[in-house]
Structures are given as C-alpha cells and as structure tokens.
C-alpha cells in the first residue's frame, strides 16, 4: 500500500500541473492570433508541455494500475485516468491543427505544369507553373458579420472533404474558432457524433437568417452620418459600410 500511495501522490502533483496547463492553453486559444509570432511560439511550447504531461501520466497510471488488486477500484481509476488524458489529447490535437494551418498558409498552391501550344503546330512553349492564391479559412470569433464567410469557407474546404472523418473535421473546426465562438463549443469532446452537434450549434447561434437580418439592419442604423458633402473620407466609409450590409441582406433574399 505504501508504494501505491507514493505513486498516487506523484500523480496528484502531475494532474494539478496538467489542469493548470489546460487552463492556460484554453485562455491562449480563445485569443489566439495566427499572425502573431508570440502566440505561435507560445503554442509550440505548450505542445511540448502537453506531450511531457501525457508521458508522465501514462507512466504513473501504469505503475498504479499494476498495484491495484480490487476490480472496482481498478475500473474507477481507469475511468479517472482516461478523463485527464482525453483533455490533454484534445488540446494536443487543437494545438497541432493550428500549427499545421499556419504551415499550410505559408505554402503557395502550385498548379501542375500546363502545356500551351504555340501558333506553329510543331513548336510548343515550355510548360509553365502557375502559382495559385493560398486557400485560407478565416478564424471566427463570434462576430455575426463574418459568420457567412467563415461557414462557407469551412464547408467547402473541410466539411465537404470526403477524405476526412468527422473527428478530423471537428479538430479543424475547433482550430478555426476563437473568443466567444470557441467558448461556446469548448465543452464538446472530440467524437464523431459531437462534430455535427457542434456545427449545428454554431449555425443556430450565429447563422440563423432572422438573427443575421437583424444584425445587418442594426449595422445600417448604427452607421455614423456624414454631415458635410466635403467629407470625402466619411462619405467613402458610409458607402462601404452600407454596401457590405446591403449585399449581405440581398444574399439572404
């Protein structure tokens, strides 16, 4: 019994540190900005910390489980251990997804060589490599103004991608969320079933047509009036902001 208590005491310390780490990472993910080098470096550091904590917990869990003789105690310990490891694995996947997203954004998408025939049938121009624009899914923080752009980009690039299973899609989805939007789904575990539930929750909260119509009408009403016809900058801003809201309203019929 003395040996098992010693291992449990060590595990308690590691679990406490893991909980603190989970809270720190969750806070960073809520405000994470992929463009900030400071955030990217911090995320990479956290990834190493998560992997270290997972290794420590697995080692201690194994030592403890080998010393437990009571079946009920053994099952309870396994369940408790699984909960801690699941939280860390969830964060590990999210961190890796955000790091991978940044790497993908840095790589130009290059089309295969295209042979373009010249006017002379016997002469051919050399194959040319066309550099296409990088595909980028915007991060969604809960601003209704950007939801349509986000959900359409995500649906086309990830949700409709048949090579990905629902858990992988879920990992990507969480990696593109921040702020209020991330908080609204942070309680969902990474499972096949929860992916659709999470997506439906986001669509219901931010994508309902009546909600979006009200949002863009309020945007129009909140536009600052221009009091002078000589204020060209103000007039341009008035036009641009009005145009955005009107076009979004028209797109919804």
Furnish the topology, listing elements before pairings:
Blueprint: H1 2-31, H2 37-67, H3 71-105, E1 109-110, E2 131-132, H4 147-159, H5 166-175, H6 179-185, H7 192-206, H8 209-222, H9 232-251
Antiparallel strand pairs: 1-2
Helix pairs in contact: 1-2, 1-3, 2-3, 3-5, 5-7, 8-9
Describe the structure.
This protein folds into 3 domains: 105 residues; 64 residues, no CATH class; 44 residues. 69% of the residues lie in helices and 2% in strands. The protein is built from 9 helices and 2 strands; from the N terminus they run αααββαααααα. The chain has a two-stranded antiparallel sheet. The longest helix is centred in the middle third of the chain and has 35 residues. The termini are far apart. The relative contact order is 0.08. About 10% of the residues have low confidence.
In short:
This protein has 253 residues and is mainly α. The protein is 69% helix and 2% strand.
Can you tag this structure with a few keywords?
253 residues, mainly alpha, 3 domains, two-stranded antiparallel sheet, 9 helices, elongated, coiled coil, DUF1759
Q: Could you give the order of the helices and strands?
A: HHHEEHHHHHH
**Fraction of helical residues:** 55-70%
| Count of DSSP H/I helices | 9
Number of strands: 2
Q: List the quaternary state of the chains.
A: single chain
Strand content: under 5%
> Average pLDDT across residues?
78
Number of domains: 3
| Low-pLDDT sequence parts | 108-133
Radius of gyration over C-alpha positions, nearest whole angstrom: 25 Å
Spatial ordering of strands, largest sheet: 1-2
Instruction: Characterize the biggest β-sheet.
Output: 2 strands, antiparallel
Please identify the structural class as seen in this structure.
Answer: mainly alpha
Shape: elongated
- N- to C-terminal distance: 71 Å
């Amino acid at each position: 019994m003395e040996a098992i208590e010693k291992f449990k005491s060590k595990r308690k310390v590691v679990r406490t540190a893991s909980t603190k780490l989970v809270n720190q990472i969750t806070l960073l993910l809520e405000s994470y900005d992929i463009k900030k080098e400071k955030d990217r470096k911090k995320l990479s550091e956290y990834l190493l910390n998560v992997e270290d904590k997972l290794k420590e917990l697995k080692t201690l869990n194994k030592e403890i489980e080998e010393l437990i003789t009571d079946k009920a105690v053994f099952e309870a310990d396994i369940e408790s251990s699984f909960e801690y490891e699941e939280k860390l694995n969830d964060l590990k996947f999210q961190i890796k997804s955000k790091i991978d997203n940044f790497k993908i954004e840095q790589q130009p998408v290059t089309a295969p060589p295209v042979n373009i025939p010249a006017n002379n049938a016997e002469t051919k121009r050399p194959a040319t490599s066309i550099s296409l624009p990088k595909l980028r899914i915007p991060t969604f923080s809960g601003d209704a103004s950007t939801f349509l752009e986000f959900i359409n980009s995500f649906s086309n690039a990830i949700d409709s991608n048949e090579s990905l299973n629902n858990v992988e899609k879920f990992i990507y989805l969480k990696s593109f969320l921040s702020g209020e939007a991330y908080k609204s789904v942070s309680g969902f575990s990474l499972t096949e079933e929860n992916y659709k539930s999470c997506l439906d929750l986001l669509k219901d909260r931010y994508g309902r047509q009546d909600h979006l119509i009200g949002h863009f009408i309020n945007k129009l009403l909140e536009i600052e009036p221009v009091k002078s016809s000589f204020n060209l900058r103000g007039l341009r801003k008035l036009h641009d902001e009005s145009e955005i809201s009107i076009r979004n309203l028209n797109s919804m019929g």
